[in-house]
Write a structure and sequence with these properties.
44% of the residues lie in helices and 8% in strands. The protein contains 14 helices and 6 strands. The strands form 2 sheets. Strands 1-2-3 form a 3-stranded antiparallel sheet, with helices on one face. Strands 4-5-6 form a 3-stranded antiparallel sheet. Helix 2 packs across helix 5, helix 4 runs antiparallel to helix 5 and helix 7 crosses helix 11.
């Protein structure tokens, strides 16, 4: 999607430059360079800031897609990358709205998008995210006076009722023993993925966090690894202890090709879909019925059963700390985190 006419542009200049990204703007009928930056994101942020009042004077025929792009330019630096990606996925489901002027869209048009998604079998969570994208677009349009305050039609959009959530169950010892039997049999084709399941149960990361851990962020001598990206602010850039019982599995994965700790045979990072495929194969082979997230649930349950310190559990799992005393005045060292994880 292009920026609206007259909004300006960001372009990369040729040659070797410290600040190769240039912001251009039409002034008095001529294109002029108004600023230079080291990266595209900073240049785009500058252009958005420069144009704070631009949309007030734009034609009323700005499309749903144009306003979404402008909104995301402001929103993206403030949200997690996975959240931005989910917004983009939800936006792409609004195909019937993209090129239509926002002023001409009706509640029936918005509801038709949700109905189409529902008919295709997509559930409550995605429908709710699509409605949130609609709300973000209208909120931006109201903020910059493209539409009046009463014009937010997203508040009238209905989504399906949420289905009854599957109750998460932790692994029991007998089940994990079957998984461990495969993990320790290097001749078994599923051994690498069985190792992953045990590693997750003994450290508690979210599946999306675990498959994106970089080898450079795994410190075997210190027995920790770092999770840089998480869906929550509390989970970002946290150190996760490695259990002594799992250390050999980490050594094995570190010897495999690829930049990420977990990768396919060619060293390529895994998507959640591909990881879930391997996970399910191990579940079938061990006659278990669990989801990847239940590894995290297992770790949390074990730590609680072992009477680990509540703050320590939150640090390991990357949960937000609400209490001001715990959040500001109490500091848990990595030694204490490792001590807790070694209780398992």
């Amino acid at each position: 999607m292009k920026l609206p006419n007259g909004y300006g542009s960001v372009t990369r200049l040729s040659g070797s430059r410290r600040r190769p990204w240039a912001v251009r703007k039409t002034i008095n009928g001529k294109q002029k360079y108004i600023a230079y930056f080291a990266n595209y994101e900073d240049a785009l942020a500058y252009l958005v800031d420069y144009n704070k009042n631009f949309v007030i004077y734009t034609p009323t025929k700005m499309t749903f897609a144009e306003i979404y792009k402008l909104d995301m330019q402001e929103r993206r630096p403030r949200i997690a990358s996975i959240t931005a990606k989910n917004y983009d996925i939800a936006f792409n489901k609004c195909t019937s709205l993209l090129t239509r002027p926002l002023r001409d869209i009706t509640v029936a048009d918005l509801q038709a998008v949700i109905k189409q998604i529902s008919t295709s079998g997509v559930g409550y969570a995605t429908q709710k995210r699509v409605r949130q994208v609609m709300h973000n677009v209208y909120k931006y349009a109201v903020k910059y006076q493209i539409l009046p305050q009463t014009a937010d039609l997203s508040r009238f959009v209905d989504v399906d009722k949420p289905r009854k959530k599957y109750k998460k169950q932790p692994f029991i010892t007998r089940q994990l023993n079957r998984v461990r039997a495969i993990a320790d049999d290097d001749a078994h084709p599923l051994a690498p993925w069985a190792k992953c399941i045990l590693m997750m149960c003994y450290s508690g990361p979210r599946p999306s966090e675990f498959i994106n851990v970089l080898k450079s962020d795994v410190k075997l001598r210190s027995r920790v690894y770092k999770i840089r990206h998480s869906k929550t602010k509390a989970g970002q850039n946290r150190l996760v202890p490695i259990s002594k019982k799992m250390l050999e599995y980490y050594h094995w994965w570190m010897s495999q090709p690829g930049k990420t700790l977990i990768a396919d045979n060619a060293g390529n990072p895994l998507t959640y879909h591909r990881f879930r495929h391997f996970f399910n194969k191990v579940m079938d082979a061990t006659h278990c019925h669990h989801t990847p997230h239940e590894c995290r649930h297992t770790c949390a349950t074990w730590l609680d059963d072992k009477a680990a310190n509540k703050l320590t559990i939150k640090r390991i799992l990357g949960h937000a700390i609400q209490d001001i005393t715990d959040g500001i005045y109490t500091h848990k060292s990595i030694r204490q985190l490792k001590k807790a994880i070694d209780l398992l």
